[in-house]
Amino acid sequence: MTARPHSFHIPVMGTGFSLDTPLRVGRFGISSVMSLVDDALIEQVRRHHAARAGLPCIAVGPFEPDARARRITAWLDLVHDLLERQMSALRALPLSPGNDKTKYFEMLPEESPLRRAYASFRALPEGPDKTRAGEALTCSMVPGSADVNIMTKLDRARAGRDGTPLGPEQSDAKAALRGFAASRLQSDLTLSAGMNPTLFGLLERFPAFYRDARGCIAKGIILKVSDFRSALVQAKFLARKGIEVKELRIESGLNCGGHLFATDGELLGPILAEFRERRDELRAACEPAIAQYYAKHGIPFVGEPPRPRVTVQGGIGTHGEVRRLCEHYGADGTGWATPFLLVREATALDDATRTQLAAATQDELYTSDVSPLGVPFNNLRGSSSEAWTTRHIEQGTPGSRCPRGYLASSTELTASPVCTASREYQAAKLRSLGFETPPPPDTRDPRALAVYAKTCICHHLGNGALVDLGIARPGLPVAVCPGPNIAWFDREYTLREMVDHIYGRGESLVPPSRPHCLAKELEMVVDHFAKQSAAIAPGDVKALERLSTAHENLQRGLEHYRRLVHEPAYDGENLASLELAIAAQARKIADTWRRAERSATRGEPVGTAEGAVLGAP
Which of 231, 373, 374, 580 sits most deeply, having the most CB atoms within 10 A of its CB? Predict the structure, then answer.
């Protein structure tokens, strides 16, 4: 339960971009999150870092008993050991200008007690008092938390080499959980993508998720949530099993990287306001159940009742926005992901893709249908993954060999689940649609285009890390999933530059014209609302009723923001952009809703959202 040195964290990015981030930035007290999706990638990266550190490494083959859990445990144990080694070396350094030990303290936020203690140390004259103060500072240095992430819905059942199904605890998410629980790493588990009751139930088997005799929890639980209701449901479910939630990590459904989980017109500002106002309610709902569990099992409950931290992430780009989220809405911290793709010291990404991202414009960052999960996915036009996919379509062999299979879930055309981005599925699907040979990539047939849209993200997302680490040759297809916020960051940055930007030290890395993160999210949510409206069939009154929830939430959100824009703006916060967005998006919402009503009640076609003329009668 050690306090984290920094008030921001680096969230999980892809399968490999943040996989070794703890070994890059953890020694500076910066917390980050590793993905546990791809154990094959994890095994490759483990061997690389063990060899680099001169440590023995016994390989774990893919068909060895409990291979997935053992690979994950082995990697997390290595991260633990290497981070401890790094911290020992850092503590041994003198507090001299320009070295990494001084950098540790100088990057801390101004409000940090440790940063203030460092400032007091510097002001002391040479002598015994300064020596003692320096020793106290050294003893106070702690690494950032090396957290892990499990997508709860990626819980594919596994089979052995001979195809025999393995037990339920061998499924992807449960094996990852067991791997984390067995590791020496004392950090937090982020559970994302909603509730998986059997996965949540497995937590009960591991004492590390409960308080010990000192009241400490070795492995904490973080829930990534989209709204208060989701947080309350999941937290109460865990509380009945005695599991405390250490942190609620609120993420914008659309203004983020990776997969996009749109809400029903709910906006980040009102969501945060609800957390601010009902935070104690959530705590009160969970405390009795946790106490009852401990009493029932004869476990002494030592320490204060749990009070989950609340953090927020998704599209944040300036220190002024950080202040809005923390000081106005009461968040305890923020998450910064996509901008760190341009920080070589922090993330694993090949040079070519990093250069593309630095130059990417807003038009080159788009929401795609590439994910086999069937969930919208952020993408970069012109990526090497996109070029690879197009080339295989041109060669008449669309789809991937599916070397990983983590997203294999379709049984539409096969007895066993396959991935919709696989060569096997795409060939069969095209034949079922009547195509004797695959049409070219520039075909106008929407049926073929829908098949071609799915690409091998689970394999391609890991290639950037493999190339960056020198494990694989340059030229492999690399997929990347940045949030739209990266359009405003236009070069590579040092770690120090990005941290100073987050804390509002020095010149901003983005121009003053960059829209507020709340304005950008409002625009994206309204665009999604317009697309939903455009899909309503003439005369479909029930679809209109479903859309009405999003319409009502948007109206409430606009009213919330109309009040917000009258608040004083923080330094570096483009609050004026939110006022402009309110006016433009209110018109679009009214026009969209009017067209939807006409379609449902009069049978008039809605037309495409893009073709709608705002304010038309």
Answer: 231
